[in-house]
From TrEMBL:
It comes from Rhodalgimonas zhirmunskyi. InterPro entries: DUF1963 (IPR015315), YwqG-like_sf (IPR035948). This is YwqG family protein. It comes from the Bacteria. Pfam families: DUF1963.
Length: 445
């Protein structure tokens, strides 16, 4: 097995003057020294993942067969952020400050799935096209080859916790320490909405729902028009019974029950289609009303008590009257997620947004949120990395880990549920500088 002790990657505190500097970072723009932006096999620009300063890495881990200067710059295709081996690129470049602008034809982050990740983006054009920038510090950690790095009690895990790996889930307005630092609500204290930006999120999420109606209706039409076969023959009943592990005489009853269940589903689809058709004008009107209302509010003003009440009443109405349109992105009992998403937007936004957060909250974030949740692992260079389903372990037999980035809400990085993106290379290829021999892997829970 090819292994070198890992380096844990920790995001630098946001108030650090080096937030827009540094020589190792995730997200933002790459320093390409005049090189062309790498593209996927179909010609679409790849997403910039990050850069690692090899001078810093080599000082800490001189035994690793990597260049002692310059930087490794990583790109991957995140349009389908699910398990697999996406198109990717790894470049070895001199350290430089020649930042390349985003290509004009770069797609939204996560491609056509952008709406699942960015509720604030009502259109494809409004979705982010890259990960937010966050400079990194590199920290040596021991490796436990017996149990694996993320095993309970492993020295690597212990070091990650010491460095600040979170034992609480994402930043939330429901956290008492967070809530105490936010602008206090005069009414509806449990709502969790503090800035008008959350109203914009709400309006845009409803626009996304409205635009999804044709797709929903097409699926319901397909379900409604499915042929319901019957009556079942003795042979078909026996087949159903066999599939269900029941060869007894109850097979006939089972088949009839399945037939009835299918007919019930068909009837439910037809009824839901009728309900959507009946309610569509009213739903369209309400979505337009909410969008116009939110657009009239300055995003970063503190929300008024009147608008808090109106938001709660609107959520009640949507939940009670428009169930046929599917689950609301921000249901009446989950409006706190508006506040959560607004907080994350401010944390990885520009300096002006960051400074709008109270100092006590900025201090809290810098102390407790510079690494992902411990259950998702931690980003690192070298070592073994977090293995989800064995693919990483198989590569680790004769490859070395160049970089692994795990799911991190502060980075808007979501490679599937609890996923990880990793870059591997054989040591001899790294020594030869054959970076095109790198393997890229996305693993999910």
């Amino acid at each position: 097995m090819v292994q070198f002790d890992p380096l844990i990657l920790r995001r630098r505190p946001r108030d650090d003057r080096r937030h827009y500097g540094g020589t190792s970072w995730l997200g933002g723009l790459p320093a390409l020294a005049g090189r062309a932006w790498p593209r996927a096999a179909d010609g679409v620009p790849l997403t910039f993942i990050g850069q690692i300063d090899l001078g810093v890495l080599g000082t800490i881990r001189p035994e690793a067969p990597l260049p002692q200067s310059g930087a490794l710059v990583f790109f991957a295709d995140l349009r389908q952020a699910e398990a697999g081996t996406p198109d990717h690129a790894v470049l070895h470049l001199p350290l430089n400050r020649d930042f390349a602008p985003l290509p004009e034809d770069i797609p939204p982050l996560y491609g056509d799935d952008y709406a699942k990740h960015f509720r604030f983006a009502p259109t494809r054009a409004a979705a982010p096209k890259g990960l937010p920038r966050w400079p990194l510090s590199l920290h040596p950690a021991p490796w436990d080859g017996e149990r694996g790095e993320d095993a309970i009690g492993s020295p690597t895990r212990a070091e990650a916790l010491r460095l600040g790996a979170r034992e609480r889930r994402g930043l939330s307005v429901r956290d008492p320490l967070v809530a105490a630092a936010l602008p206090q609500a005069e009414v509806l204290p449990g709502l969790g909405v503090h800035w008008n930006h959350s109203l914009h999120l709400y309006g845009n999420s409803l626009i996304q729902m409205l635009r999804a109606v044709p797709e929903i209706c097409a699926a319901l039409e397909t379900e409604k028009d499915q042929e319901v076969k019957g009556p079942m023959t003795r042979a078909s009943r026996g087949r159903w019974a066999q599939l269900l592990g029941n060869r007894a005489s109850a097979g006939a009853e089972t088949g009839d029950a399945l037939l009835a269940e299918r007919q019930s589903g068909r009837d439910a689809a037809a009824a839901r289609l009728d309900e959507i058709e009946r309610l569509l004008p009213a739903f369209h009107s309400l979505v337009s009303e909410v969008a116009e209302w939110s657009d009239r509010r300055a995003a970063w003003d503190v929300i008024t008590p009147e608008d808090r009440r109106r938001l709660a009443m609107t959520a009640d109405r949507l939940q009670n009257e428009f169930k046929a349109f599917g689950d609301m992105p921000y249901g009446r009992n989950a409006l706190y997620r508006l506040g959560d998403d607004t907080l994350r937007h401010m944390v990885h936004g520009d300096e002006a947004l960051w400074q709008k957060l109270p100092q006590a909250l900025r201090d809290h974030i810098n102390e407790h949120y510079m690494m992902p949740h411990i259950d998702d692992g931690w980003s690192q260079a070298l070592g073994h990395g977090r293995d989800r389903h064995g693919a990483g372990a198989a590569l680790a037999r004769d490859h070395m880990l160049l970089l692994q980035v795990v799911a991190d809400d502060f980075m808007c990085f979501e490679p599937g549920k609890g996923g990880a993106l990793s870059f591997w290379i054989r040591p001899e290829a790294a020594e030869a500088g054959t970076w095109q021999a790198t393997t890229c892997l996305i693993e999910t829970e």
